[in-house]
Amino acid sequence: MKDPTRERISAAFDRELSQAPVPGALRSTAVRAAVRAHHAPAEDRNRRLQAMVAVLLAAAVIATLLIGSHLTRTNPQPAGRSSVPPAPQADAGYVYDGAHGQFVLFRGNGAPGSKLGDTWTWDGKGWTRQHPATNPPARVDAALAYDAARHVVVMFGGRGQTAAARPQPVDLADTWTWDGHNWTRLRPHQSPALNYDWPAAMGYDPVSRTVLLYGFAKIATATTTTMTPQTWSWNGSDWAQLNPASSPQSSGDMFSDGTHLFLTAPPATGQGISTVQMSEWDGRSWIPVASQNMLPNPDLMSAAYDLQRHELVVLSGGDTWTWSQARWLRVHPDLQPPTGSMVYFAALHEVVSWGERWGADSSNAMYAWDGRTWKVVQPGNVVPSPAPSGAPISVRALSPAAAEALIRKTVTATSPVLLPTSLPPGMDANVDVSSDTFNVTYQSDQRDKEIDFGTVVANPPPGGVAPTDTAVPFRHAIAMKFRPSGYADYHVYDTTNPTSMRWLMWIEPGTTTVGGTTQSGVSYFLSATGLTDAEFWQVANSLR
Amino acid sequence: MVQSLPLAEIQAARSGDEAAFDSLVGPLIDPAFKLAVVLLRDRGEAEDAVQEACVKAWRNLAQLRDGGALRPWFLSIVANQCRGVRRARWWSVVRMPSTPARDSSNPDVEAGFDLDREVAALPLTDRAVLFLYFYLDMPLAEVSRTLGISPQAAKSRVHRAVERLRLSMVEVQE
After folding, report:
1. Total domains in the fold of chain B
2. Is A469 left (phi over 0), alpha (psi -120 to 50) or beta?
């Protein structure tokens, strides 16, 4: 039952304590000092302790640097905890359990077609496979949040499957809590009915001291299907739908900076540039947050707020970003993890990232962000399987010259191989290449300019040419559907934005040999974001 | 709820295993620091108090016996340490926590702002009992063990503190 007195007093303490955050290295320094004090002779123990207090500030800095090795060293493990992590899982539910100081993982997909539904916890030193008396049904894309007012983890919904002989996907609308030992199903009077084609996000709102859920309802008519955003509030016993005046139109991540709740999601209108919009919950609506620059939006990203350093940390597109003081900054860590399942691990005072959030192939290691770089705090045990013969090679962060050398050396069954000889300065390149196809992505350092070029896209794309496309004379293009010979198809996504995404497609005279069969013509596709029309054509006209 | 103690880790911690000791008290450092801030109203002193409490906790691991609960045991050491710090102060000025500036016409926010001031002005014994009971969600039995008072006294303090805040009375759960 809701207890307003408890909530008001707790909120008052919350506000007071937000002025005195827990020192980052307090745990490690205090514990170390206590154990070392035992080894000091009794007669000078007090003196040593006083001296130790005097050097604690310096020790705190050193301890922060050493905490990674402290965590990864070998120690006697209590029963149940293991250094062996769970196998990599895509679309798993995860959250930081503030009451128990644990990363909680509710796993999703297992082998193809199976769903696991098992619970694992990581306490900063090792993994524990939990064996709760009650297990929620297996699911993927469940929304999880730590309810700081009620000191439990809340899990809602996700996509499960029916129990039929041939299981079918089913969107779940059940609410569970995790108390550190067991799952309990709750029976609220009403529950959101969300569709998980687009994942939902959930977070704790420190202002209202409720858990907010942001997801999408699928509304189908005879002619259209729309995904409508919905915001719901959980007070510990029931769900209530809220009616914000404005909402982002895509799914994203929810996080709190300790005083307010935020949502990162692409905006409703992109103006031809795919970016992430930050919105803040003001108690009634999602309000866009002004930013000095924009975060490019790859399809997949993950985010967690670093309460120690007061910045949002984002993994996306193979890069690490921070957001603070209304500015996005791409940083250059020594070690770059995959886009993992990220939380702020309060007991370590660091953001951690486990595995790969959206894929199940690459990693099950735990990484921690120290403000400058990532470090492995719990190794994984995944051995990458060798790529099958003939599979594309993927290489990241090459110079344009190195990318060109790799492509020209590898592509032997397609001719001609065209590559730009004029690019905006300061770009790096990611290459996917096989003997007959290639794609190269050039990006500026802060990712505000991007050029994709390659042979991997069929021309024209499914659906044909749009009415807004224009035919432009280009090279000696072979005639293709909708366009006569000598012309390419040119498209500007949003003509009101001078640096809108734009693309050019054509068929170059030449040959491609796939599986021993030679085809006439090479389909090329050039797209760019953040480039003006003139810059785009400078790249296009430099192809050699 | 009293949980069984991790005896293997206690034994390992007694023999000087830092990791084992950390697994026992490490998760309690955050609430301990917050309790110390509530009692001392000073971040630096709270940090010192928690560090000293850790030393005392390690020395007194033998006090942890079957049936004892780790959290009230450790937090009671922190609370005692804070009392000692307060007694040792040569000055008597009560520092009020700074409250962030707010720009709001929302009456709920204003009411919360007033409550912040009233909570900050409460006697430390009342602040401690409210923090443990409401904020840390401790059962009354744990509150009483942490503060070294009887459960009945803890219950009375909760009632008294809530009355002072002029909030509606709550049913105090044992």
Report:
1. 2
2. beta
